[in-house]
Amino acid sequence: MPRFEDADFAVDAAPAPGARSPRDARGSAAGSLPIPSDAGNTVEIPATRSSISDAAQYMHNLSFAPSSRDRRASRNSFGTSLPIPRSPRVSRLSSVVHADVSRDILASQVQDVNKEKTAAAKNMAFAFDIDGVLAHGNEAIEEAKEALAILNGDNELGIKIPYILLTNGGGKPEEERCAQLTEVLGCPISTDQFIQSHTPMQALAEYYDTVLVCGGEGQKIRKVAENYGFKNVVHPKDILAWDPTVSPWRSFSEEDRLEAKPRDFSKVKFDAILVFADSRDYATDMQLIMDLLLADDGKMLTRSVDPVANRIPVYFSQGDLVFPTDHKGPPRLTQGLFRISIEAQYKALTGVDLERVVYGKPERATYTYADEVLKAWMEQLHNEARLPENVYMVGDNPASDICGGNMHGWNTCLVRTGVFQGGDNDESNPANFGVFPHVLEAVKTALRKELGQDFKFKWNPKVNPVTHGDGASAVE
Ligand code: G3P
Ligand code: MG
């Protein structure tokens, strides 16, 4: 039986003293990669390539969102423009719930008596992040329910204090997500106070007709894009149903096939690629995105001679790297890391940096759009379509929520129920209003600052509007 000698593997039979062997380095952070098993029946073959990741050279130099500090000089982070709708689409019927008319009358009498406090209450608003602030996955963070109850009118003025939800999440229609949040949070959440990562991207429907949309559960993202007005929406499963061989490692069920809308994609010219949420099939989505980026002017099955001249644009709905979930361990990977993989793949294949656009917090376009939503929501709540002077952003991710809020001139509150687990404050993106254990503490502190240290976080249904001013009939 032939037997291999060490020389056959280009290995020195007796390594020189001090030579770096993976076996020697086992468990040592300073050495090469350790070999996991201690089997004696192995030989060590020197690597021909470095064991250090070479992804950096393939990555676009703007892969990571610069911190507030880095961005100080430039408010336009990516040097390109991001279209957003001129004004938000507001539901035709008012979404503000008036459940109890006599309570509302009593509250407005209390507000009449307390003019100054009421004016201050109408001059403030909140913008809440969702994952890691209000909820973990589909589980509400308990303190969030009380915070929202206070803002929904459970306070000494019986006044609603406007809040919007500004999330980098996405993947399903706004109506569906708001219905889900209403259930999770135990209070009504209207689409008129809700912005998910891709909501402002509806403006792109004016620029592109045929789009590949990726991400999210099942094929819900198709409905999202159709609601936004894109004329010809293609889901990756449509392409798989046309030709399953496009993705060698696909995941494609019978249910997928029933929902898919295959057609002859060899005749389709795509105008843009839109990643709206986390991919549920990295293999297929990466393959198709790369196919279209390398194609000649968005035509499937082609390859462009010049990778840049005829490349169609790619848009990502947000850039977070990790996010908190109901998983008990560290935060999970999310869309930003998927994008970085695409960038690295593109550069590895073409040698060229991929130009791309990233929406979502901390991007200015997202906050500008949030202002419009807030104005419209102010009109519904207070009949005044204006921006309040004191807006408080409550977030758990310094690099997105806090960075964007700081740049936008909002008061920023960082909570410890999500991504941020650091010390006194985040070093790169410090929250300017402070760090709080949870959202309820942030909300109470902001309300006390604007409305007085003695402001009561409870509505008293037996309040006497006339004597209320001295606090005699208010309860704690
Ligand atoms: O994928 C990240 C996203 O879920 C984060 O959502 O609410 O923390 O902005 P949010
Ligand atoms: Mg979050």
Automatic annotation (TrEMBL):
It comes from the Eukaryota. InterPro entries: CDP-alcohol_PTase-I (IPR050324), HAD-like_sf (IPR036412), HAD-SF_hydro_IIA (IPR006357), HAD-SF_hydro_IIA_CECR5 (IPR006353), HAD_sf (IPR023214). GO terms for biological process: glycerophospholipid biosynthetic process. This is Phosphatidyl synthase. GO terms for cellular component: mitochondrion. PANTHER family: CDP-DIACYLGLYCEROL--GLYCEROL-3-PHOSPHATE 3-PHOSPHATIDYLTRANSFERASE-RELATED, HYPOTHETICAL HAD-SUPERFAMILY HYDROLASE (EUROFUNG). Residues 1-42, 65-85 are annotated as: Disordered. Residues 10-19 have a biased composition (Low complexity).
